[in-house]
UniProtKB/TrEMBL annotation, chain A:
It comes from Sphingomonas corticis. It holds the Pfam family Redoxin. The keyword Disulfide bond applies. It is found in: Cell envelope. The keyword Ribonucleoprotein does not apply. Residues 35-175 form the Thioredoxin domain. SUPFAM superfamilies: Thioredoxin-like. The chain crosses the membrane at residues 6-25. This is Redoxin family protein. Keywords: Cytochrome c-type biogenesis, Disulfide bond, Membrane, Redox-active center, Transmembrane, Transmembrane helix.
TrEMBL record, chain B:
Possible subunit of a heme lyase. This is Cytochrome c-type biogenesis protein. The chain crosses the membrane at residues 91-113. Residues 4-121 form the CcmH/CycL/Ccl2/NrfF N-terminal domain. CDD domains: CcmH_N. Signal peptide: none annotated. Pfam families: CcmH. Keywords: Cytochrome c-type biogenesis, Heme, Iron, Membrane, Metal-binding, Signal, Transmembrane, Transmembrane helix. Belongs to the CcmH/CycL/Ccl2/NrfF family. InterPro entries: C-type_cytochrome_biogenesis (IPR051263), CcmH/CycL/Ccl2/NrfF_N (IPR005616), CcmH/CycL/NrfF/Ccl2_sf (IPR038297).
Length: 175, 122
């Protein structure tokens, strides 16, 4: 029997320890991203969520200007945190449409009155149908849609101050 | 009001209501147990009570009641969320070692056994 073979089990054990230590100290990113980035926005039509504001449909995203599609809910706390940054984007001239997930009109109206209203349109996605069709796994999420209705970027989680310039850049590149 | 109630009764909330057809319900149930809840990632959508898991159960039941096969529904979800959404991931570069390792280890074992039997025979 060759001597060096005796060390093989110890080496294998060492490799396993290294893999486990790596996994413990640098846990994998478990964010679920949509596979639809780079593909056309799926077809949909959503009824209006609040009075005086139209609903959203996929046709609205093929008008020749890049837009943001914000997935939000009045019951979502990080959505409150991102509201001022959406207002900044709106002030910069970015058209923003929204989908309200599992929500009620008066709750959304109250949310918009308190946190500002950056939206051109708000669709009512009462059973998360569009959310699931988009490959979105939570609120808030923001999709950048280019001038031809293709999804070019998905931002998972609330938009922070440092994300605003990145989103503006992506929108400028999506013309 | 009554019309709304009737409508609600006619379209039950499929997140918490079984399908009428037992065979379809069994298909849906089996699929739900193999789909990962997206927010509570250690659980299947059958086990989780998160809102989005409920919506995913409703989607699975609705599509199976409409005549889709569990395979079609699973592929629809994988196309949107990636293979991570299923607990029964398809064979690919990342999962190939899982399938091939047992075969490789068996082959290695056979090779070692052959060596030691031959030595004993001598």
């Amino acid at each position: 029997m060759r001597r060096w073979l005796l060390w093989l089990p110890l080496c294998a054990f060492g490799v396993i320890v290294a893999v486990v230590a790596w996994g413990l100290y640098r846990p994998a990113d478990r964010t679920v991203y949509s596979r639809l980035v780079g593909q056309p926005l799926p077809d949909f039509t959503l009824a209006p969520m609040v009075q005086g504001k139209p609903g959203v449909s996929s046709a609205d995203f093929r008008q020749g200007t890049p837009r943001l599609l914000n997935v939000f809910a009045s019951w979502c706390v990080p959505c409150i945190a991102e509201a001022p940054h959406l207002m900044t984007l709106k002030a910069a001239g970015v058209p923003i449409d929204a989908v309200a997930i599992n929500d009620k009109p008066d709750a959304v109206t109250r949310f918009l009155r308190r946190n500002g209203d950056p939206y051109a349109r708000i669709g009512d996605d009462r059973h998360s149908r569009l959310q699931l069709a988009l490959g979105s796994s939570g609120v808030p999420e923001t999709f950048v849609i280019d001038a031809r209705g293709r999804i070019v970027k998905q931002h998972v989680g609330d938009i922070r101050a440092e994300d605003v310039p990145i989103l503006l850049q992506t929108l400028a590149a999506a013309k | 009001m009554i019309a709304a109630l009737l409508l609600a009764a006619a379209t039950p909330n499929l997140a918490y209501t079984q399908l009428r057809d037992p065979a379809q319900e069994a298909d849906a149930r089996a699929l739900m147990e193999s789909i990962r809840c997206l927010v509570c990632q250690g659980q299947s959508i059958a086990d989780s009570d998160a809102d989005i898991a409920g919506e995913m159960r409703a989607l699975v039941r609705g599509r199976i009641a409409a005549g889709q096969t569990p395979r079609q529904v699973r592929d629809w979800l994988v196309a949107r969320y990636g293979a991570y959404v299923t607990y029964d991931p398809p064979l690919g570069w990342a999962t190939a070692p899982l399938w091939l390792a047992p075969v490789a280890l068996l082959a290695l074992g056979a090779w070692v056994a052959r060596g030691s039997f031959r030595r004993r025979g001598r």
